[in-house]
Design goal:
- The protein has 729 residues and is α/β, with parallel strands linked by helices.
- Helices cover 49% and strands 11% of the residues.
- It has 31 helices and 19 strands.
- Strands 12-11-10-13-14-15-16-17 form an 8-stranded mixed sheet, sandwiched between helices.
- Helix 12 crosses helix 26 and helix 19 crosses helix 23.
- It is globular.
- The two termini are 51 Å apart.
- The mean pLDDT is 93.
Amino acid sequence: MAIDLTNFRWDQDADGIVTLTWDMPNRPLNVLSSGAVAELGKAVDAIAADKSVTGVVLTSAKQGGFCAGADLDEMGAFAGRRTPDTVKQAFALMSGVHQTFRKLETCGKPVAAAINGTALGGGFEITLACHYRVCAAEPRAQLGLPEAQVGLMPGAGGTQRIPRMIGAMAGLPLLLEGKRLDPQTALAQGLIHKVVPADTLVAEAKAWIKSKPQASQPWDRDGFRIPGGGPYSAGGANVFIVGNAMLRQRTYDNYPAQRHIMAAVYDGLIVDIDTGLKIEARHFVEVLTDPVSRNMIRTLFVSLGELGKGARRPAEAAKSDVKKLGVLGAGVMGAGIAYVSALAGIAVVLVDTSDEKAAGGKAHIAQLLDHEIQRGRTTPAKKDEVLARVTPSSDFSTLKDVDLVVEAVFEDRGVKAEATKKADAVISDTAIFGSNTSTLPITGLAQASSRPKNFIGIHFFSPVERMGLCEIIVGKETGPQALGTAIDYVRKIRKTPIVVNDHRGFYTSRCFSTYTAEGLIMVTERIAPPLVENAGRMAGMPMGPLEVLDSVGADTALKIAKATIKETGKGDIPDAAEELLAWVVEASGRPGAKAKKGFYDYDDRGRKTQLWPDLLTHGGTQWTIDVPVKELELRLLTIQALEAARCFEDGVITDPRDADVGAILGWGFAPYTGGPISYIDQIGVAAFVARCEAMAKTYGPRFTPNALLKEMAAKNETFYGRFGAAKAA
C-alpha cells in the first residue's frame, strides 16, 4: 500500500520490497529535518503493519549524495539558549528522532540503506539504524559524523550504535575527531557492509533482502557482546582511561562536545540501547545549548558556508570565470598557487626570472602530485592532466591573454613594483592583477599599475595546498569588478574568501602578530618560556607563540618589525621584545624552523625537540613560574580580540563573518570561541572593555580599549548586532 509522502517516494515491487527514496522538495540535498523524521515514522508504521512488505530499501534521489546531515536551521533555534523551555523542547525533538530510528530497526522487516553518495551527521546515523548498508563506489563520497568539528556531538544515535558495531577503541576517534571517511575506508572499518557500482546500488540492497537475513540489529539479540568489551571489562576500561587522558592533552577541555561524547559512549555502553539513547539525548542537549556550540555553528558552518558561496561579492560585478591564470614567482608560494589553480581546471602560466626557476616551480607541483598519488588521493593519469595545464616561462609576453595575474614574488615593495610593471605592459585591459602579500598596503603597490581599479590583494596562506582561506584586500582605487573576479577565482579553487580593506598587515597578519608579540613580551617579563608556550596551547591556539615564530620564520618577523619602524616611525612591539627577537635571529643565527634552529631545537628531519637551552639561560636563570596560567591565557586571547575590534574601528573589517572565519582559518584563533568577535560578544562588550582597562593598568597601554569598544559598551551593543551581515552588505 502506498502512503502520501512529501519528502520520500514509496515504491513497492513484485517481491514486496518497498524502496523509500528520499527526495526533499526544493533542496539540492536532503537534510534530517523534523518533517522528514515525522514522515519516516509514518512510513515505518505502514511498513510494519503491511504483511505484503518483505523488506525496505532506503535510498536518495539527490545527485549530491544521500543526506548532508541535520537541519541546522532547526538546531539553531536551540543553540546557545539554555533555558528550561529550550532544554525541554530540544530533548523532545531528539527523543522523537530516536524513537523513529528505533521503530525502523525493530519493525520486523529487513532494512537496507542504499547510500548513493555523501552521508554525514544525522544522514549517516539513519543508515546506522538500518540492518544493512551498501554504498556506491564514489571516491569523493564522505561518510561519517563530523558534528564535533562545529561544536556539536552526534545526537541521532551515533554515540550508541557505532561503539556497538566496531567497539569503543575504533569508534571514539571517529566520534571525537569528526572524521569523514571514503566508502572503502568505511568498509574496512566495519561501518558499511559492501561497496558496489552506483548503477547496481539498489539491486544489491534488494538482493540482500531476498537472501532472507535476520531483521534485527546485533544489540537487540540475546547474547550480544560489545566488540572489545564494555567500560567495565579490562580492555574497555583501558580505552577510556587512556582516551580521557589523550582528550585532555589535545583539547585542554576547551571543547564541551568532546567531553560529552566521551561520557555518552561510556555511560551508554553500560546500559541497554534504549537507555543509552536517552543518555545521548541528554548530553546532546547540554552541548547544543552551550554558547560554545552556538558560536562554532555560526562561524564554522553558517558563516563559512555563506562566505564560500560568495556572500561578500559585489552585486554590480559581472560574473567571471578565470580560465587562464598568470602566476609571477615560481617559489614555494607561487608554485602552490599554480598547483591549486591547475587542480581546479585552470590553465596556468608560471613566470619567473629564468626558465630554470620557472621549471623548478613546475617540478615542485609534480612533487605535490606524487605525494597525493602515494596517499591514494590521485592517479598518475590525473597528475599528467594537471601538469599539462602548467606552462613555465621567463617571458612576460606569455601573460597577454590571461584573465587574472597573481603576483607572488619576494615581499619587497621594489621587487613587486618591477614585476607589476612588466606584467602590466602585456596583459589585456580587462585582466585583473592580484598581489599575494601579507603586509604591504595594496594602495601603495597599486601605484606601479596603470590600472589601479583592476588591482587587488589576494593573500594566500602557506602551505597553499592545505590552507583553506584567502584574504582579499580592497585598495582605495580597487573597483567592484576586481573584487568580484577575485572572489569568483578563490571560490573556483575551492577556498574561502574573506574581504578586508587596505591597511598595513590587513586583518590576519595584523591581529596574528599580536599573539607572537605578546608571547615575546611575556618572556621579557621573565615568565618562563615553557609556561608561555603551554599557556598559548591551553588558550586554544594550535601552537605556542614562540613555536609560531619559528614556523613563520623568526627572521621574517624581525624584518617586518624593522620595516614597520622604517615606514611608520614606530614599532608594533616594545623595544625589549624586539631586542629579544634580534638576539635570537641575528646575534645567535637562529632564523626559525626552516633552518632547524630558532626558539626551538630541531632534529635532522625538521621536527622540534626542545626549547633552545640558551634561551632558558638568557639573562640569568631567574624565571617566574608563579603566575596564574589562566591570566596568561586571557592575555593572549584578549590582545588578539582587541586588535580585531580595532580593525572594525579602522574600517579594515566591516563584517563579523570575515573576522571570525578569517581568524580561525587564517591563524588558528581558538576555534571553540567561534572567533575573536564571537569571543567578545559572548563575554559582553562592557565586560571585555573592563577586562582590557584592567590589563592596560597592569601590563601596559597596548591593552587600552579603543573608542568603538567603549561606545558599544555604553550602548550595550554586540558586534553581530551592529555589524551583522545585513548591515554590512
